[in-house]
Design a protein that fits this description.
With 373 residues, this protein is of the alpha/beta class. The protein is built from 11 helices and 13 strands. Strand 12 and strand 13 form a beta hairpin. It is globular, with a radius of gyration of 21 Å.
């Protein structure tokens, strides 16, 4: 990932293509595909494989806790970020008069549970200003009725990275709300300081280079009572097989309540390998290597005849850059003809730069964009 040789060894599928779409799908290193194979070997052992599965599961909780700055008891694992937010909505038991704040740069998973007609709370939208979320625009939305504020540390839409500490301070000062932070587009790419976050959520198939089927949930113990979901299940319950189990059910507190059913052990093998790979590479090393690529790409995009929708704020950028063009589909087709992969959706084009990318990747992208334009 960090040298020419390790890139060739660990990511052989990248040898002849320019892949700049990690914000949609990360490319797993060979250790992750090996881990999935190991899951298969352990699974054919039947029940004798269960202790091996459980060891992988607990290892993921320990690693996620390390990245989140929590303890393993404050980590839960569900199937995806969407499930995590729906379970959080269930835990809050919102009522008439409650308020929820979402934002217009966020992924649907963090916003739509509160927009369903069954949600009694009023939803307020923290709107971006020049493609950035400004804390001064959040403050007037906060009140004594605000129950939760949801935001992504790094926006999937345009890559803007919020000033989390300032956001947390504003939420704490002007409300009693919980702050939910989606780190899907940050985990594995930038060093996390999640001080002030009450609910932390991440999917697992992007920057940590693992598989689908995982949602890493962090709930600090101080917020466990408020964020205990009442979902049915068994893995999330206290003593689910007791003699009088059909008389009542009691959830485990906090993060453990988000682990509702049979664990996705196959995903755990992949997540364990992916997180260990990122840890071994070193987040600081990844950021140090990729920062010049991101800034070079940003400068190149500035000189193109496109509408840039990533703000020109170096401290507010991680690994994602985005722009729009009315002929985006044709441009994407030109890029794909040269085996250059970026995201294109409804006229929006998004570039995502990770540790396995090189300056040559950026130069090829910019040259191809200039040709297409």
């Amino acid at each position: 990932m960090l040298t020419e040789q390790s890139r060739k060894t660990d990511f052989p599928s990248l040898a002849n293509r320019t892949y700049l779409n990690t914000a949609a799908e990360g490319i797993p290193p060979t250790c992750v595909t090996d881990a999935l194979t190991q899951y298969g070997r352990d699974k054919v052992l039947g029940m004798d494989g269960r202790p091996l599965h459980e060891a992988q599961w607990e290892s993921v909780r320990l690693l996620a806790a390390e990245f989140y700055g929590l303890s393993s008891d404050e980590i839960g694992i569900c199937s995806c970020s969407s499930e995590a937010y729906n379970l959080a909505a269930m835990a809050l038991q919102l009522k008439e008069g409650d308020e929820v704040i979402v934002n217009d740069l966020d992924f649907p998973a963090g916003a739509t549970p509160w927009l369903q007609p069954t949600c009694p709370a009023e939803v307020k939208v923290w709107r971006s200003n020049e493609w950035a979320l400004r804390v001064e625009d959040l403050i007037p939305l906060l009140s004594a009725h605000t129950r939760i504020v949801t935001v992504s540390l790094v926006s999937f839409f345009n890559g803007f990275m919020i000033p989390l500490r300032e956001v947390a301070e504003a939420v704490q000062k002007d409300s009693n709300a919980l702050l939910a932070v989606d780190v899907t587009q940050a985990l594995g790419r930038v060093k996390l300081d999640l001080t002030g976050a009450d609910l932390i959520v991440s999917s697992t198939h992007k920057w940590i280079l693992a598989s689908h089927g995982g949602g890493l949930v962090g709930v600090p113990s101080a917020r466990a009572e408020e964020l205990t979901t009442t979902a049915g299940g068994w893995f999330n319950l206290k003593d689910p097989f007791r003699e009088n189990r059909f008389e009542y059910a009691t959830s485990k507190p906090g993060a453990a309540s988000f682990m509702v059913g049979m664990p996705n052990y196959a995903a755990a093998y992949a997540i364990n390998a992916g997180l260990n790979y990122i840890k071994g590479a070193g987040i600081e090393n990844i950021e140090r290597q990729t920062r010049p690529l991101v800034m070079a790409c940003l400068e190149g995009i500035k000189n193109l005849t496109v509408e840039r929708i990533t703000p020109d704020e170096p401290n507010g950028i991680a690994g994602i850059l985005a722009f729009r063009h009315p002929d985006a589909d044709r441009i994407r087709g030109h890029l794909r003809s040269k085996d250059i992969h970026i995201m294109c959706q409804a006229g929006r084009m998004r570039v995502a730069i990770h540790g396995y990318n090189t300056m040559e990747d950026v130069e090829k992208l910019l040259a191809a964009l200039r040709e297409a334009l």
